[in-house]
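A quick aside before the break. I want you to see a complete sequence-to-structure record at least once, exactly as it would be stored in a machine-readable document. Don't worry about memorizing anything.
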Amino acid sequence: MSERTSKLCSLSDLVAEIPDGSRVAIGGFAVYQKPMAAVREMIRQGKKHLTIVGTVHSMDVDMLVGAGCVDRVETSYVGLERYGLAPNFRRAVQNGAVKLVSYPEMLAWDRFRADREGWPFWPCYSLGGCESILENPDIVEYTCPVSGRKAWALPAAKPDIVLIHGYQGDRYGNVRLQAHSMLPQAMDVEMARSCGTVLVTLEELIDNEEIRKTPELTQIPSLRVKAAAVVPHGSHPLSTLLACNEDEAHMRLYAEAAKTPEGFKEYLNTYVYGTADERQYLELIGGEHLAGLEADK
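That is the input. The structure line, written in tokens, reads:
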């Protein structure tokens, strides 16, 4: 029997797998378990002309848009939740620098289900009266050949790359979910099943023997994963269930900085361009501060 191949690489090499112009699906949900370390590295590497496709976004999209990495966003929401609007995203959409293609939240999720099943679109009966029909020409009205009812076809998400921050995983690329997982983790699994190129940052590297003890938690198996990088605190300043809590102080700092282009530029110069890699970024945040964010398991 041939020996299994390690999928581990550096964060820099992981992000180098994302070509300019890609359709990138970013895992997590709103301000939970986003692959923020990978987002910062995408900005450092100067990715361009990306299309971000997903369901509910926050700081991930706002930072990429503000840094000039994104041409198009297909989603239902971009915002900072209790910290306010996503200022970079809003400015870019309003001035025409970024194209927004809007979908209702759960139907944005269903687009990945279409990819999972190998379908070109996801059928829907429930869009009557929804403004997305008027604003999004990619949603096509048709008559259902079985029921005769009016229906709408939503195009599959068709991501080129899926980028996820996982809780635990082994060197072969098996990714284990938290035992009591939530919506962000379910979205990650759906996305991982929708695409042939899945890139994962791991909060914690564990041994394959540990993976084998609870096989039911390995919802993203190694066969789905192209590459994985071990990045503790990889969702900072956002939370990862059972690993780290949200950094409220840093979120407020970001929300205030992003209110103006000048403030956001200063933020990038300090926390992204001013740090060569995630090790330096975490040193800048501070080990004592990060220890205070560790979640109860």
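Two observations worth writing down. The CA atoms of residues 20 and 250 lie 29 Å apart. The chain has a mean pLDDT of 95. We'll return to this after the break.
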